Amino acid sequence: MHTRIKFCGLTRAEDVRLAVELGVDYIGLVFAPRSPRRLLLGQARMLRDLVPEEIGVVALVMDNPRQDIEQIVETLQPDVLQFHGAEDDAFAVAMGRPFWKAIAMGGQGESAFASLAAYPNASGFLFDGHAAGEQGGSGQRFDWRQMPVATGKPCLLAGGLTPENVALALRTARPWGVDVSSGIETAPGEKDAEKMRRFVDAVRVADARG
Which end of the chain has fewer CB atoms surrounding its CB within 10 Å, N or C? Predict the structure, then answer.
């Protein structure tokens, strides 16, 4: 097994460098207007330049104006756009990059899955613990047993993951990938080096055990 690891909400060069050193699969840069981890384009460009080609860069947006997303795409050339708002499939496709659609699982249970069919062009889905309309990166968990197993597309698990519980999450949900933000932080946008290392180690050990 190889569970993909995405570190999200990075704001500091030292955190990006360590993420690269640890061999994560994706680095998420946040542009959601209300997020405490939101980056300006100049900051994001600096961080993006630290990421080698073999690691994917994901730009997270949430109901950002179309012009802003177009600037993000032009400036950063992200590998993936991650949509957390009310953006529809046609809007996401028009941005010209592969995209993941975030599904808010908080308080919704299986009813959240009804929205999957509305995004036929999504490259993957991210199931997060927050409620609809709320920000990601909140550390809220949902019942991992509700994680879908047959969407036909890559699915990432997010929300409340930590170095201590990610192995259990993998055994329970069997996701294609895991996405962590607050679970490896000392403060919003400021990652904890030891937690970053322990998170990656926990995933790799769990993968080795199958």
Answer: C
CATH top class, domain 4-209: alpha beta
pLDDT digits (tens, 9 = 90+) for 106-139: 655 555 677 888 999 999 999 987 555 455 445 5
- Two tokens at 206? 């769990």
| Nearest-angstrom CA–CA distance, 126 and 123 | 10
- Cα angle: 136, vertex 141, 145; to 5 degrees: 125
Q: How far apart are the first and last CA of the chain?
A: 7
Report pLDDT digits (tens) over 160-187. 999 999 999 999 999 999 999 999 999 9
The three-state DSSP-derived secondary structure of 122-179 is CCEEEEECCCCCCCCCCCCCCCHHHCCCCCCCCEEEECCCCCCCHHHHHHHHCCCEEE
CA angle 90, 55, 98 (to 5 degrees): 10
Domain range summary for the chain, segments of one domain joined by +: 4-209
* Residues ≥6 apart with Cβ < 8 Å to 209: none
Phi, psi of 121 (to 5 degrees): -95, 0
pTM given for the model:
0.93
Give CA–CA dist 158/6, Å, rounded: 9
Write the CB contacts of 15 (distance below 8 Å, at least 6 apart in sequence): 7, 190, 191, 193, 196
Give residue 25's identity as a one-letter amino acid code. Answer: D
